[in-house]
Specification:
By secondary structure, the chain is an alpha/beta fold. The chain has helices spanning about 5-15, 20, 110-115, 155-170, 195-205, 240-245, 250-255, 275-280, 290-295, 305-320, 325-335, 355-360, 375-380, 415-425, 460-470, 550-560, and strands at about 25-30, 35, 50-55, 75-80, 90-95, 100, 115-125, 180-185, 205-210, 260, 270, 300, 340, 385-390, 395-400, 415, 430-435, 460, 475-480, 485-490, 495-500, 515-520, 525-535, 580-585. Helix 4 packs parallel to helix 5 and helix 4 crosses helix 16 (about 550-560).
Length: about 575
């Protein structure tokens, strides 16, 4: 596409106020529902034509929508109402909006001139957990108290409450523009288990979910094991967490595995893959290994490990000394006699990248679409998990696969994907671009060869930054992985700059999602507004309330009190509710 067309198109769009966007229509780049790598990596380029694929159900407002704060952290945010012991939560003071001028000087009067380009929601690191899975590493808590969290049995309840919050939003909190889609930026599942993948698809698209595996009648895991290093909510065991003030809750585990309902998102949603979606435990390149599947679906579970052995295993994972899990397999075999019996379950088997794509393409999980939630049959044919899609008339989205199938939890991209990214940006140079990935630029330093493409070079986050810096149409790189709110300005010279927006997880406190609004200020600048939102669950909890809503509220409060929980994951004021100003490219 020529640069001349770019200028003319944007001039027309600015004059018309980007009417197509305010209509709430999303677009995909053909050949199918998104523009995936349509051939094997390194061959062919494919073509693209625009066609509508999804439309938000949100009705036009009868009165001005914006600015508004209800349901966002601008209005209120969960905060402790007690200062010691198990700290109860309540309504706290909201977080103010901060204008960041790192990359451009904001000009006065822009609020009266600006025009909305697009608005969407980012969800990230849901980590939906099959907490009874035999391959989980709860026993690392003997060396690291943060390795197991007391709230983990409630991840599905928390995710459903987050969907309910997104459904209740009236539009972009600053502009009132309709929310055009939601994007999940990876680690949608926790342990690459088919059970978790089914729960994720139903949370997002709607349906009845029973967050249980193994014995359909009752829970079989560390929380009723009697082992004192884990919170034993249903028993009188004086475990380590109860000594910290955690409550005794009769009926908690039965309630945690009880069937619940997700309404599904009331707007289209797209999906990006994370390392926990790609590899067992988020770090082992062991797909197809019979030993791993055997343990995953089998009837034995290791629930405790001496601290010295736990530290050795944790160090091996952190330092990527065992990317194929050989040492992990040997450890499990050595402790076969220490394992406890559980009910075998085939649904706990690891899912392959192909099965991940097939689940997204399954009509049962379409919800409001689009078909495949970004992925397409082209991805299946090429064996890829990256694609592009049209967000709005003048904005495209690009979803990357930054997981390294060679093992380890840090990321990288292969040469074929990097070339595809460059080509996609060039072919759409008349549109603004928002990049989505799981990993941040600083967590892409793992360049192990992909077993499926042993001769292909892997590239770091620094190389991706350099590529993005060559394209004036890039506005933002939106990601997760680090479980922390962090917004970074990237200035790369010659007027090229963009923002990297990393959002906290929904498994660790403060359990947030983020609304992002793109606006043209009509003065030579673009603003990106970011607004954090919590789930719909009330801040104040009632220990006697074990309903779906009550458990979602407890999920947040347990995460706040989790031993070893970090206090900096919310980030500073400059990383939460912001206006990020950019010069127009």
């Amino acid at each position: 596409m020529s640069r001349t067309r770019s200028v003319n198109r944007r001039t027309v769009l600015a004059a018309t106020g980007a009417a197509a966007v305010s209509a709430g229509v999303g677009y995909a780049l053909r050949p199918t529902d998104s523009q995936a790598a349509t051939t094997a990596p390194g061959t062919g380029t494919g073509t693209a034509a625009e066609a509508p694929v999804a439309q938000s159900r949100q009705a036009p407002a009868a009165a001005p929508l914006a600015p508004y704060t209800r349901g966002t952290t601008v209005a209120t945010v969960a905060a402790p109402r007690t200062s010691s012991g198990f700290r109860r939560l309540g309504d706290g003071i909201g977080w103010r909006r901060v204008v960041r001028d790192d990359l451009a000087t904001p000009k006065s009067g822009r609020a009266g001139r600006r025009t909305a380009l697009a608005a969407f929601v980012q969800l990230t690191d849901l980590h939906l957990m099959d907490t009874q899975h035999p391959l989980r590493l709860e026993y690392l808590r003997s060396t690291d108290v943060h390795a197991w969290r007391p709230q983990e049995a409630l991840t599905v309840h928390g995710a459903v409450a987050l969907v309910e919050r997104v459904n209740a939003l009236r539009g972009g909190p600053v502009t009132g523009a309709p929310l055009h889609f939601a994007m999940t930026t990876g680690d949608n599942t926790d342990n690459n288990a088919r059970s978790e993948l089914e729960w994720f698809m139903k949370v997002m698209s709607g349906g009845r979910i029973r967050p249980n595996s193994g014995d359909p009648r009752h829970y079989e895991g560390v929380q009723n094991s009697g082992i004192k290093q884990y919170w034993q909510p249903d028993t009188t065991v004086r475990d380590a967490d109860k000594q910290r003030g955690f409550p005794h809750l009769d009926g908690f585990l039965a309630a945690a595995i009880r069937e619940l309902n997700s309404p599904g998102l009331n707007l289209p949603w797209y999906s990006t893959v994370g390392n926990h979606d790609s590899m067992p435990l988020g770090c082992y390149a062991s797909h197809g290994d019979s030993w791993l599947t055997e343990y995953a679906v089998g009837g034995k579970k290791l629930m405790s490990l001496p601290a010295a052995e736990a530290k050795k295993l944790q160090d091996a994972i952190k330092k990527a000394k065992d990317p194929r899990g050989v040492g992990f397999r040997d450890l499990l075999k050595a402790h076969a006699r220490d394992m406890r019996s559980v009910t075998p379950d085939a649904s706990r088997a690891p899912f392959t990248p192909r099965e991940y794509l097939q689940a997204h393409l399954d009509p049962a999980y379409r919800g409001l679409g689009p078909v495949g939630h970004g992925y397409s049959t082209a991805n299946l044919d090429a064996g890829t998990q990256y694609y592009s899609f049209r967000i709005a008339e003048d904005v495209i989205g690009i979803s990357l696969d930054t997981t390294d199938a060679g093992g380890h939890y840090e990321g990288s991209v292969g040469s074929a994907q990097l070339k595809w990214l460059e080509r996609t940006l060039k072919e759409n140079q008349d549109s603004y671009a928002v990049i989505f990935s799981h990993h941040t630029s600083s967590s892409m330093d793992n360049t192990r060869p992909d077993p499926a493409r042993p001769g292909e070079r892997r590239h770091t986050g620094a190389e991706v930054l350099a590529l993005l810096g060559r394209h004036r149409n890039v506005l933002a790189w939106v990601n997760g992985h680090i479980h922390r709110n962090e917004i970074t300005a990237h200035a790369v010279g010659e007027g090229r700059s963009f923002w990297e927006i990393s959002t906290a997880s929904h498994v660790d406190y403060p359990q947030l999602a983020r609304v992002i609004e793109l606006v043209d200020n009509k003065d030579g600048t673009i603003s990106l507004f970011t607004t954090c939102v919590e789930s719909s669950a009330p801040h104040r909890t009632d220990f006697a309330d074990l309903s779906q809503t009550g458990l979602a509220a407890l999920y947040r409060e347990l995460s706040y009190n989790a031993p070893g929980a970090r206090t900096d994951l919310a980030g500073g004021a400059r990383d939460r509710n912001t206006e990020l100003v950019l010069k127009k490219g």
